[in-house]
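Study this chain:
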Amino acid sequence: MNALVHYEVDGAVARLTLDSPHNRNALSTALVTQLHQGLDAAAADPRVRVVVLGHSGGTFCAGADLSEAAGQDPGDVAVDRAREMTKTLRAILELPIPVIGAIDGHVRAGGMGLIGACDLVVAGPASTFALTEARIGVAPSIISLTLLPKMTARAAGRYFVTGEKFGAAEAAEIGLITVAADDVEGTVAELTAEIAKGSPQGLATSKALTTASILRGFDALAEDLTRQSAQLFVSDEAREGMMAFLQKRPPSWTV
């Protein structure tokens, strides 16, 4: 299996690097599997106090790998992808180790959900963020579980429906990320050094206090949102939206 996620440990810091730039680090089955393996390896290593989730290339993550849907029933694909996304976000939230997202690139769709699940996020000047689902006839259903608890209500009300692109400074202002930094690696190094002073028990319990309410949202809403995601994905509007996107033309509702 090709290495799509690189895992390395340096002292108290485990680094997970998404490295599938040919498809903008899309969440393929293989990449997601390797991401889970890396999270499990970090949790099992007594040296590790913090995980840094980074990326190669100009995109952190563009969301689901739709190329894997070819020849499959769209409804089944939508349900499988939604459940896979839920499991991945939950794995980050439930990891008994803080996770820092280190971003200096574009973040879209499921990638937005990943940074919502991270405990801290540092984003550099090349970072851009957008929730463009409504433009293709769907909605940020599953990823709302990690985004809505982090973003201000006014910001969510805006960006969920406008699809506007915004940068790191705005992302920090609305709570989507922790720090907008010119020097991502330097800022991450400062944060990891502070976190490494914590004990395993202290870090795990302290993190759990911050994620408990988000996880309760998963328990209450994930199944309904999975069904919603599937229904949207197989709708006529979504088919038109995705086709328009692929054909680089305006969808029918804007003409």
Residues 35 and 157 are 31 Å apart (CA to CA). Strands lie at 5-10, 13-18, 50-55, 59-61, 99-103, 106-108, 120-123, 128-130, 166-167, 179-180.
